[in-house]
Amino acid sequence: MCGIVGYIGFRDAYPILVKGLHRLEYRGYDSAGIALMNEEKNLSVYKTKGRVNDLEEYVLDKDISGTIGIAHTRWATHGEPSNTNAHPHYSQTETLALIHNGIIENYAVLKAELQKKGYTFHSTTDTEVLVQFIEYIKQLHKCDLFSAVQIALGQVVGAYAIAVMEKGNPDQIIAARKSSPLVIGIGDGEYFIGSDASPIIEYTNKVIYLDDEEIAVIKRHEEPQIVTIGNVRKTPQIKELEMSLSELERGGYPHFMLKEIFEQPQSLTNCMSGRINVEGTNVTLSGIIDHKDKFLNARRIVIIACGTSWHAGIIGEYLFEELCRIPVVVEYASEFRYRNPVVYPDDVVIAISQSGETADSLAAIELARKSGAFVYGVCNVVGSSIPRNTDSGSYTHCGHEIGVASTKAFTAQVAVLTMMALTIAKEKKTIDDKKYTDTIKELQNIPGKISQILDLNEEIRQLSYIFTYAQNFIYLGRGYNYPIALEGALKLKEISYIHAEGYPAAEMKHGPIALIDNEMPIVIIATNDTIYEKVVSNIQEIKARNGRVIAIINEGDEVIKSMADHCIEIPATKECLDPLLSVIPLQLLAYHIAVNKNRDVDMPRNLAKSVTVE
Ligand code: M6R
Questions:
Q1: Domain membership flag for residue 613
Q2: Which one of 86, 461, 471, 480 is most buried, by most CB atoms within 10 A?
Q3: Ligand 1 atom closest to Cα of 607?
Q4: What does pTM read for this prediction?
Q5: Is the peptide bond between 88 and the residue preceding it cis, with omega within 30 degrees of 0?
Q6: Percent of the chain having pLDDT more than 90?
């Protein structure tokens, strides 16, 4: 949430910062701003409501010279999107400029204290309070900027990733983090700062990930100094980025979301590679095998996640219970963290997250670890906070996901959960050899079957025109396809802004059936599984009330074809792998409806890719 980029070196900072902001725009996009210091050591801040393009227009007649700068693209928390609330924020004397990602929880108290001392505020943000507070500390203690930041952050409650510049000091940027990611890229005589690696990868693949409560002093000609808020000096750990630049480009697709939907055959192949043997007879996840006893002796599995990752978690529940016979509960991380849950030391907690930075999931992990549970991360972003704060885990390896609506990360999460369940089931001997190898072999067929479904893209696009102006949608599914109904509905509402509800199909008669009339589109996933007949009955109930049925069926299902208004035919697979296929047409349907409605598919209103605030 919110994008941070910074540069200090020998090149013009502005083009690097603006390009970085474009790369980070998926993290937040309601306003953008930049601070630059020119040769005369003057510090200028330019900012505006709107997108990065608006900022570029705004600075056309401004001095954008300088080889040091910081820039920000915002997702509003405190204060509406506006020119004044945009970052960077100046301090009272305009000698400091600061950008911030996160929330300062005690900002109101700090602000009141500063106001009593005569400080005035232009914005309604918590960020302006922080920069004013740093300046106040600097003046009070007559100290340098690093010490002022250190003392100020010691008194701040909340989450932050910040970068600060000081007028008259063109050789230094101070950066710090707590519960919000920050990466420093190491170039040759130059440094880059990013809230993730995407603005950095073009220039260097050597990075330092700051840890919580670390402050970095980044000087032009020196190695970064890293010191904690408690004044402990740290040795910077330099890591190599695995990301490639092409992952950050649309590659000819009109939107990242469509590109990412179409990447799924390859992203799933990558996800399984090195884990399933060539013969398709064995699957091994080292993160599980290294901690086998934890899983074999687990009293239960608790899955914590948010949004789409939570939907993957429900599929995980079905998989672990069916294949491993371990009781599972799936919790929204945001509820789990505050409801004083019972967590046993012999629980295994699985945290699922694309970004690895979701604030609620991180807090839930902390709670689980304090209770003594073993915590396993299923994450996409390598080196993000969740893998660094869990006992073990598996990466989903689906590549950088940029579209705000998660697609390829979801299928990779489901694939990892399937491989986890198979690995544990084999160790626990809760699966027979035939079912084990049959499932692995079929898992290997999934990328090819997804390619077949992607061939239906044009057919689904045509179908989307019929439903573009629907006001509401209902999505229904049962068993393994119930979480897919939830996911299909979430995809549609996120990017088209059409109200959509996902339900277990049998629950329909307990309430939602009242919504059905001849205007209500109902998407029902009706593949040929063990409860197929029941789903057929559900379709009949809908048709009896004149609902308009769009059914996701297996190829050649004449029974449902004769009942439904529209059918999308997908290849058959094993029941537990159904979600990996049935979600694909729903991703495409949501995408096309949103495009028909002229929505900003990759950057839908009010959303951001990684939710690093509560
Ligand atoms: O990065 P995470 O997987 O932890 O993110 C969780 C949710 O914020 C995320 O899945 C969100 O619901 C997406 N916009 C769904 O498309």
A1: no
A2: 86
A3: 14
A4: 0.86
A5: yes
A6: 85
